[in-house]
């Protein structure tokens, strides 16, 4: 080349010198920097529309390529006047065309509309204008390979609808523009609005950021694969602000499948370490299972299966939350009796399926206290280890009061009748049966009559909560409420679930709420509170009827909305705070065997090995036997009576010194 400048910089010692090239020789189309050849481009033409992360193909380009983006805000006054001039030009061309009876020019119309829209947005402060420059520098070891790199880069740019012009005769300025100096001697800038600039932001990735950036090992459990990047989605709910999760999706979207998968995989995990560095605390999971879907899973992993509705399985709502610590001493929260009385109001409201009135509440309150007194349980904590009364005793107390011409009490007694002597008496007909502890405890509600489903769920949650809140046995726990819609229909029960969701974190417990009734959940204040108290939110395929509500509650974009409407079975969005990822749940064949409810698959498994499915189930039905009252207070954590201690209230010692 005719005009070649040759600067030679003597190699300097020291940190600053390390980055200076040994020599720089400038040609018309390229530079020789040290022993490298570089050529630079400025982008002068952009596509009409861009999508988020549209620069990614350039950034992941396999050759050595420097991409530099210069962004300079335009002050709103200048932007407005510039736009006004532009609009005036476009508008006058349009009028000129129409005055001369020419056909209208669609491109001109589109440009005029865009300009008008932009000026409106800028006037409202919805966006701003920026001067945006994009420069590229490609490196090669020699001139021939540089020529190849240049043509490859130009075709890549063409495929992105970018018009990349070589910095001919301005090679040095081009190179300087791509150095991290903030200098733009080429000055090939175009005006962009906020949306277009933000879409160019180069560091977007469809993957979730790692919980611990210092290690590359994934933590948490595997949820499935990432639909955007085909990477894997791991999520550690115990690393979030709270450990709760909600799973929303229409029927058959794969909620139970995902929850079962997560529960199973959580069982493999151990959180925390003891002094010797050994994993100390294995996760324990409790499942409220209205559809009897978790039985096979429980059987195969050695879990416990509690079959409510089968004879001999009883839950007594009157049990006080008496804990037994490792040394066999009994403790209870200071206000255990008072809380239990309040919980019994909830129980009665859920049994009746209606709110109780103020008059009824007053009568009930007195009757509950009297019932406890008759069983020898008073405000003195030392009496709290005595056998708790039963629902039958409360009914009898109410009947006695009713006989003294108290119509409210007589009415309440009559309404309790079906649950004491009538069709639904089995569940309450005796002291709580002891449920064995285990790493997975499944409470199946399917065989409960519909009328008892809600109360069954409530009492199971109460039983579970007694374990979770026992200060003597701390370990990470998961409590799964599948089909929570059932509980949400009753305000008292919903309030109970909400309190549980709020208190769970303090007891190292994560509540999973899965429901297909997204509208019910998001339509009530308590439901919304449960959702907002869940740091992990999973949205699976949604029905068109509720999508607007979901979009509003979770602030979804138009793309996310469309994705949720058309997602396949098992596909959904995992969202936590500002992070969101589209994933598809994925199970190994063995896991699938344990958790699937697909009738066709189940039939195939049964054909292949008739024992595999049925025998497993038979083993899962545990005969719990009639409870021995004395037993249920002495055998430790297994058999503590139920409690409503949501908070870590101070524990009082119940044993006489
Ligand atoms: N990721 C998946 N891979 C393979 N099969 C799946 C997947 N997710 C769900 N399924 C199958 O889809 C069917 C429905 O799933 P699932 O029972 O989890 O639905 P659901 O959302 O809980 O529905 P419902 O609200 O009615 O309980 C089941 O047969 C299950 O085995
Ligand atoms: Mg389900």
UniProtKB/TrEMBL annotation:
Origin superkingdom: Bacteria
Biased composition (Basic and acidic residues): 88-105
Family annotation (InterPro entries): P-loop_NTPase (IPR027417), P-loop_TraG (IPR043964), T4SS_component (IPR051162)
Chain ranges of the TraG P-loop domain: 238-570
Region listing for Disordered, in residue ranges: 1-20, 79-108, 632-657
Family annotation (PANTHER family): SLR6007 PROTEIN (PTHR30121:SF6), UNCHARACTERIZED PROTEIN YJGR-RELATED (PTHR30121)
Protein name, as recorded: TraG P-loop domain-containing protein
Organism from which the protein derives: Amycolatopsis marina
Phylogenetic classification of the source organism: Bacteria, Bacillati, Actinomycetota, Actinomycetes, Pseudonocardiales
């Amino acid at each position: 080349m005719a005009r070649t400048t040759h600067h030679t910089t003597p190699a300097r010692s020291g940190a600053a010198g390390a980055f200076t090239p040994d020599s720089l020789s400038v040609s018309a189309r390229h530079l020789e920097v040290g022993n490298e050849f570089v050529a630079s481009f400025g982008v002068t033409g952009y596509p009409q529309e861009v999508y988020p992360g549209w620069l990614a193909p350039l950034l992941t380009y396999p050759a050595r390529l420097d991409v530099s983006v210069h962004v300079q805000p335009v002050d709103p006054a200048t932007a407005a006047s510039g736009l006004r001039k532009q609009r005036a030009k476009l508008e006058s061309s349009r009028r000129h065309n129409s005055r001369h009876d020419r056909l209208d020019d669609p491109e001109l119309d589109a440009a005029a509309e865009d300009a008008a829209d932009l000026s409106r947005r800028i006037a409202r402060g919805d966006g701003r204008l920026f001067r945006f420059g994009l420069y590229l520098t490609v490196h090669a070891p020699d001139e021939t390979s540089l020529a190849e790199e240049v043509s490859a880069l130009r075709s890549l740019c063409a495929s992105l609808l970018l018009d990349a012009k070589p910095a001919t005769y301005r090679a040095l300025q081009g190179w300087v523009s791509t150095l991290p100096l903030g200098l733009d001697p080429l000055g090939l800038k175009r005006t962009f609005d906020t949306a277009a600039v933000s879409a160019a932001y180069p560091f977007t990735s469809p993957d979730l950021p790692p919980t611990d950036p210092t290690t590359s090992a994934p933590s948490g459990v595997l949820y499935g694969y990432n639909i955007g990047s085909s990477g894997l989605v791991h999520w550690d709910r115990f690393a979030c602000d709270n450990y709760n999760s909600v799973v929303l999706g229409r029927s058959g979207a794969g909620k139970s499948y995902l929850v079962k998968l997560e529960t199973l995989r959580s069982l493999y995990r151990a959180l925390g370490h003891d002094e010797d560095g050994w994993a100390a605390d294995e996760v324990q999971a409790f499942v409220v299972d209205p559809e009897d879907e978790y039985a096979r899973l429980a059987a195969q992993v050695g879990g416990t299966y509690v079959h409510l509705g089968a004879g001999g399985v009883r839950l007594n709502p009157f049990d006080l939350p008496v804990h037994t610590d490792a040394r066999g001493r009994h403790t209870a929260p200071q206000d255990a009796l008072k809380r239990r009385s309040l919980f019994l109001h909830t129980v009665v409201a859920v049994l009746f399926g209606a709110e109780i009135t103020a008059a009824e509440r007053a009568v009930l309150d007195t009757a509950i206290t009297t019932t406890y007194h008759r069983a020898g349980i008073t405000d003195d904590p030392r009496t709290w280890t005595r056998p708790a009364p039963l629902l039958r005793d409360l009914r009898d107390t109410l009947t006695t009061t009713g006989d003294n011409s108290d119509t409210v009490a007589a009415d309440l007694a009559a309404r309790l009748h079906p649950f004491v002597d009538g069709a639904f008496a089995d569940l309450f007909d005796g002291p709580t049966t002891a449920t064995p502890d285990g790493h997975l405890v499944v409470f199946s509600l399917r065989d409960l009559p519909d009328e008892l489903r809600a109360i069954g769920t409530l009492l199971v949650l109460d039983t579970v909560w007694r374990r979770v809140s026992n200060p003597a046995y701390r370990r990470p726990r998961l409590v799964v409420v599948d089909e929570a819609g059932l509980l949400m229909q009753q305000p008292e029960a919903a309030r109970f679930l909400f309190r549980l969701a709020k208190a769970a974190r303090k007891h190292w417990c994560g509540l999973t709420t899965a429901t297909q009734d997204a509208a019910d959940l998001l339509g009530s204040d308590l439901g919304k509170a449960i959702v907002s108290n869940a740091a992990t939110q999973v949205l699976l395929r949604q029905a068109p009827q509720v999508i607007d509500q979901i979009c509003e509650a979770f602030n979804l974009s138009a793309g996310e909305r469309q994705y949720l409407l058309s997602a396949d079975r098992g596909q959904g969005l995992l969202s936590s705070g500002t992070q969101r990822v589209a994933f598809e749940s994925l199970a190994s064949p063995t896991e699938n065997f344990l958790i699937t409810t697909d009738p066709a698959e189940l039939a195939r498994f049964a054909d292949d090995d008739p024992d595999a499915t049925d025998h497993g189930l038979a083993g899962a039905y545990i005969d719990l036997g009639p409870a021995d009252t004395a037993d249920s207070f002495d055998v430790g954590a297994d058999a503590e009576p139920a409690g409503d201690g949501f908070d870590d209230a101070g524990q009082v010692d119940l044993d006489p010194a």
